[in-house]
Design goal:
Low-confidence stretches: none
Oligomer: single chain
Strand content: under 5%
Keywords: Membrane, Transmembrane, Transmembrane helix
Mean pLDDT: 78
Number of helices: 2
Helix content: 55-70%
Distance between the termini: 74 Å
Largest sheet: none
Shape: rod-shaped
Length: about 70
C-alpha cells in the first residue's frame, strides 16, 4: 500500500527528464481502445434491439419450411 509520500508521479519532472525513458504513454492506443469500446457498445445495442425481430423471422421460416436443414423427401 502506498502512502501519500510514495505516490507515483504521472508526469516526469525536470529532474526526472534526464533519467526517464524516451517512451511516453501512447495516447493513440488509448484513443483507439476508446473508439473500439464505443463501436462495440453500439453493435451490442443494435443486436439487442434487433434480436426480437430476428427470432420472429426464424419462427416464420420454420413455419413455411425453411431452415430445417437437409431433410429426406417423403
Amino acid at each position: 500500500m502506498r502512502t501519500m509520500q510514495q505516490r507515483r508521479r504521472t508526469r516526469p519532472t525536470d529532474a526526472m527528464a534526464a533519467t526517464a525513458s524516451p517512451h511516453r504513454p501512447c495516447w493513440a492506443r488509448r484513443v483507439l481502445f476508446a473508439q473500439v469500446a464505443v463501436v462495440a457498445t453500439l453493435v451490442a445495442g443494435i443486436l439487442v434491439r434487433e434480436l426480437p425481430g430476428a427470432v420472429r423471422e426464424v419462427r416464420i421460416w420454420r413455419m413455411i419450411g425453411f431452415g430445417a436443414g437437409s431433410r429426406h423427401p417423403r
